[in-house]
Write a structure and sequence with these properties.
206 residues, 7 helices, 35% helix, seven-stranded mixed beta sheet, Rossmann fold, alpha/beta, globular, 17% strand
């Protein structure tokens, strides 16, 4: 495979990117400077942009060969509906998710994948459902063999083992570490989708 220019939006600590290797030119965008610093430590060869991923996509999407986006999910999650019934004030779903889908569906002719949780409402634009998430992509994502997830609902040692990062040197609070792991796309799924994108491209040549 040729070297690709990849845009990794809402990058977090880089769970989705972890198994992509270092042969590609990767630009990551993350709003939180503390999280961005952890990502940069894990992936020193990537270009890190600390800023608004949504605006960066609009300004730069045509510069890349592959785009991954994981917009914030809390307002789409079933937990939003659950919290409402617990007396927590409801919020509008964040429509940046659909703005990005529409933009890439209509104006971008290379490979992209937008990831989010399964929403408590019927999706406004039909996604692919793989495992326990929604994906909007311009290639087919085959089902992946299910494994025990471990990102949520398990002890922290099991969660750490699933994402495969070592946080010891960062001196994080347990609450912050739990938050960044819970927001992390499992590396095996990130690799599976990356391989699906470019397998589809190779097959189309025959």
């Amino acid at each position: 495979m040729k070297q690709l220019k990849i845009l990794n939006l809402y990058a977090g600590i880089g769970g989705n990117r972890k198994l992509w290797g270092d042969e590609h030119e990767i630009t990551a965008v993350e709003m939180n400077p503390k999280i961005a610093a952890i990502y940069q430590d894990f992936f020193p060869n990537d270009k890190m942009v600390v800023g608004d991923a949504h605006q960066y996509l609009l300004d730069h999407f045509q510069e890349f060969d592959f785009i991954w986006s994981s917009p914030p999910c809390p307002t789409h999650s079933g937990f939003n509906n659950l919290n409402y019934h617990k007396g927590v004030k409801i919020k509008y779903p964040d429509m940046k998710l659909y703005e990005e889908i529409v933009l890439l569906q209509n104006w971008y002719d290379k490979k992209y994948c937008i990831e989010n949780v399964i929403s408590y409402y019927d999706p406004l634009i039909a996604p692919q459902k793989v495992d326990s998430h929604y994906y909007w992509a311009n290639f087919y994502i085959r089902p992946k063999e299910k494994t025990k997830r471990g990102i949520r609902g398990e002890d922290m040692d099991f969660r750490r083992s699933k994402v495969g990062f070592n946080f010891e040197k960062f001196n994080l609070t347990k609450t912050f570490e739990k938050k960044i792991i819970n927001n992390c796309v499992e590396p095996e799924m990130g690799l599976h989708i990356f391989n699906e994108a470019f397998k589809a491209e190779v097959q189309s040549l025959f």
